[in-house]
Amino acid sequence: MNKPTIIISSILILSAGALFFVFNRKFRKETATAPDEMKVGDTIIPLGNNVNIRSTPNVETGNYIYPNYVGTVGTYLSSELGKDNYVWYKVKLDKPTAKNTEGFVRIDVVKKL
Predict the structure, then answer these.
(1) Which domain holds residue 24?
(2) Which residue among 27, 86, 102, 108 is least packed, with the fewest CB closer than 10 Å?
């Protein structure tokens, strides 16, 4: 190989490696951890327009307390690691039901008010 071919090949290899690293970092599922800034009693709200509030800290059919809930979720009680390796906030619900005064929301869909 001549020198320009080696340089171009090296650049292409480095570029492909950099793209793989960026793509892998962006889409790799990482284990979440509870943010240090959460304190018992903090108010939790959805990041977007709504959030699913669940009876257990995992995504399962039938464990909804409130699907597509809009408004203040409740107050932070604790954090738990779910079966899905996401951290879930246990909250005291602002609008309790006859069966549930507490529920769970995944940390990547809510924020502290």
Answers:
(1) 1-30
(2) 27
